[in-house]
Amino acid sequence: MAIQGYFISSLVIKRIRDTDGIQSTPYATATIDAQVQRVGDTNDVVAMSFGATHKAWIDISANVKDGDKVVDERDNIYDVVAVTDEGENIAINEHKEVMLRIYDGYTNVPS
Fold first, then answer.
1. Would you give the end-to-end CA distance of the chain in angstroms?
2. What residues have CB less than 8 Å from 31, skipping those under 6 apart?
3. 12 falls in which pLDDT band (50, 70, 90)?
4. Is the pLDDT of residue 55 over 60?
5. In CATH, which of 3.40.50.150, 2.40.10.270, 3.90.180.10, 3.90.1170.50 is domain 3-103?
């Protein structure tokens, strides 16, 4: 089975747009299918907040960048901390690998 057969989660990619030079507004750029798994079984402390690292596998053509946010079907918000094309040129299993971080209480979708 190709890796795309394991893409069972739906993620909305949100990117920050500078609307007036002062405030930034997040906007949805796309909805993509992905496979998301937690990396490890312990929470990390980052910037005085508990967080957990996840890895997502997505289609090679998806437009995801470091600094984006992704929202899953349960309204959990993840920060995109790294995007790699490690799965590029792997026949039918071409994919991008995305490192995500979620923090405690980070479950409200940005407006």
1. 38
2. 10, 11, 12, 13
3. very high
4. yes
5. 2.40.10.270
Paired tokens of 89: 């040129």
- Show Cβ contacts of residue 42 under 8 Å, excluding neighbours closer than 6 positions: none
| pLDDT for 62 beyond 80 | yes
Tokens, residue 111: 């407006």
Task: Please list the residues that pair with 50 across neighbouring strands.
Answer: 45
Domain locations in the chain as residue ranges: 3-103
Residues 73-96 have pLDDT tens digits of 988 899 999 999 877 777 778 889
Higher model confidence: residue 9 or residue 49?
9
SS (H, E, C) the chain: CCHHHHCCEEEEEEEEEECCCCCEEEEEEEEEEEEEEECCCCCEEECCEEEEEEEEEECCCCCCCCCCEEECCCCCEEEEEEEECCCCCCHHHCCEEEEEEEECCCCCCCC
